[in-house]
Each structure stands twice: as structure tokens, then as C-alpha cells.
Amino acid sequence: MTKIQAAIVGASGYSGEELVRLLLRHPNCELKIITSRQHDGQHIEEVFPRFAGHNLKFSAPDVKRIAAECDVAFLALPHGLAAEFAKPLVEAGVVAIDISADFRIKNTAKYKEYYKTDHPAPDMLARAVYGLPERYRKQIVQADLIACPGCYPTSSILPTAPLLAAKLVLPEDIIISSMSGVTGAGRKVDLAYLFPECNESLRAYAPVKHRHLPEIEQELAAAAGMPEVAINFVPHLVPVNRGINSTIFLKAAPGCTLDKITAAYHDAYAAEPFVRVLAPGKQADTKYVIMTNVCEISYTLDEHTGRVIVTSAIDNLTKGASGQAVQCMNIRFGNCETDGLL
Question: What does the radius of gyration of the chain's CA atoms come to, in whole angstroms?
Fold first, then answer.
């Protein structure tokens, strides 16, 4: 086993805090550096009392120090900012695992359309590997820049890709309706996410052109073997802290049967440690995946409408962000893929 020295750049947000939780218990990783400009100089227990007793102090991000002391750097930063650190870190020989959206979307025009700015490092896109282990494990092994999927894309791609690849569903008329806990918006002060606004409330938002849409479409097109697909994606905010539940409506292809769907999921995920495919009739439930790196998948075939209806459940901060990033680190450095995640 390789002993890994790690840094978290932007460790004071929800994903950063989750990374701290996972790496502090990781048997083959030492968390050396945690950065935050806001909390520079503070001991970790001053910001996160749950980590009392650990000798860690926040510092301002310093690429030279990270390069000198660490093998891997997790970038838990807002989009646009992560790229500023990814390029010099990779050039210095540090593996960069980015949790932001900076390197997920390969099409720079799409990035500009959805993020309203030019891509901050287009010359790095070709070397970035999409960090969804169940689909890109072989590429992750060789990667020095890993772009971890978003939480909504993870909950959408894992259930849908095997059915598209097996030609059991059509690559058009796909509808995804997702519900997310409030931590999905990040740790920020915003009226829409205050407790009185969220509690006892359930609402859709960004039903057209949500920022995760091009990422989902990019990966579903790849699974279908097509240049492009167009889908409807409608996210909802629900009054829970963590978790995403997605319901995916797919048009069954001719000859699609429940047995063939079962076989496709078995072929794709029987050996995967973090995908749990439920028996037909059971439903994916966030209750059983919170604080884990597991994606739960359930499915049924509605013969009345000719649709395959799939549901998935993940923890948006773990399998949807930090846990998946740790899974990618384990793969990249040749350690047991489940280290720190069980």
C-alpha cells in the first residue's frame, strides 16, 4: 500500500469538511495541509469542533508548500478558482483531484454558455479524466488531473448509462427529476437557503439550463455512442441536509424487458463496491446511503407507457463529491479502492 500525503485546498466548505472527515480516518493517507484564506492560522477544532484533538491548522493556499509536502491535492473550490491551482500543481508533479466544475465539461463553448465565462484553462482539458470510477477506472489510474463529477450528474449517469450502452432505452425523450438536500448549494449565506425559507418547503429550481445539464448530457451521449443527446433535467430543493434522490424516465427500446434490464445492471455493477442495485419493486432511499459512498439504484418497466423508470439515491457530499474524490485517489495511487470509505 502507498502512504499518501494529501492537501485540501478550500477545506472550510461542506465538501472540504467531508474530505477532512474521510481522510482523517483513511488508513493509508496523511492529511498534511488544509487551506482557507478566511480561517488562516486557526486550528481545525476552532472551525470544526468535531475534529478536536487533531493537530491541523488552516493556512493560506501555497502551491510551493503543497508541491513540496504532498502527493495529491483536493481542490474543494468554486468553479473558476480551482483551475488557478490545478495547473501549477500538476506541473509540479502533484495529482490534482478537482471537485469543482472546471474540468468536467470538455466543450469550452458549452462551459461558457452555462458558466457565463471563458474556460479558465482550456489547455488542461485534454489531460483531465472524468472521475467517475465505475466508467473511467482505467483512465483514472494514469491521470494527474481528475475532474470529479457533480452530485446531480453522479445520481443521473450511474443509473442511466448501462441501459443506454446496452441499447435497452432510447437516447431521446429522457427526463430526470432530482431532489437535493440544502448542502448541495454549498456553505454560503443566501436568503433562499436560510432555515425559515427551506423548512417545510419543496420547490423546483433552474428547470431549464441548470449548470449540471451539459455534464449529464456529455456523459449520457458517450454511453449511448452518440455525439450529443438532449434531456430534460429538473432539480428540486428539499428540506434535508444531505442526500439526492433522482427519478429518471426513459423510453424503452423495442425488445426491452425487465430481465434484460436486470442483466445490464448486473454486468455493469455486480463487482462495484459502491453501487447497490436493488431488486425490482424496491425503491432507492436516501436514508440508506447518507454518510456513505454508495449509490443505490432501483428500476421498473412500465408496460402501460413503455417507459423504464429508474430511481437513484446518493449522499451529495460523499458519493456526489468528497467520497468519490477519495475513491479516485485510492485508484490513482494503487490502494484498496474502499480505503477510508467503509
Answer: 20
198 is catalytic: no
Average pLDDT over every residue of 163-172: 98
| Helix ranges, 25-166 (H) | 44-47, 63-69, 82-91, 108-115, 133-142, 151-165
The domains located in the chain, with CATH, are 4-148+320-332 (3.40.50.720), 152-316 (3.30.360.10)
Query: Is the alpha carbon torsion for 7, 143, 93, 111 positive or negative?
Result: negative
DSSP code per residue over 294-341: -EEEEEEEETTTTEEEEEEEE-TTIIIIIHHHHHHHHHHTTS-TTTTT
Cα–Cα distance for residue pair 197/25, rounded to 1 Å: 35
Averaged confidence pLDDT in the chain = 95
User: Residue 75 pLDDT more than 70?
Assistant: yes
Tell me how far the alpha carbon of residue 46 is from its chain's centroid: 28
pLDDT of 189 above 80? no
Q: Which residue has the cell 472527515?
A: 21
Kindly name the residue from 29, 70, 148, 151 that is annotated as catalytic. Answer: 151
DSSP 8-state code for residue 237 = E
To which H or E segment does residue 275 belong?
strand 275-277
193-229 residue pLDDT tens: 778 888 888 999 999 999 999 999 999 999 999 999 9
Specify the pTM: 0.96
Is the predicted pLDDT of residue 302 greater than 90, yes or no? Answer: yes
Partners of 311 in the β-ladder: 247, 298
Indicate whether 49 pLDDT > 80.
Answer: yes
The amino acid at residue 85 is: F
| Residues 250/170, Cβ–Cβ less than 8 Å | yes
d(CA 9, CA 106): 23
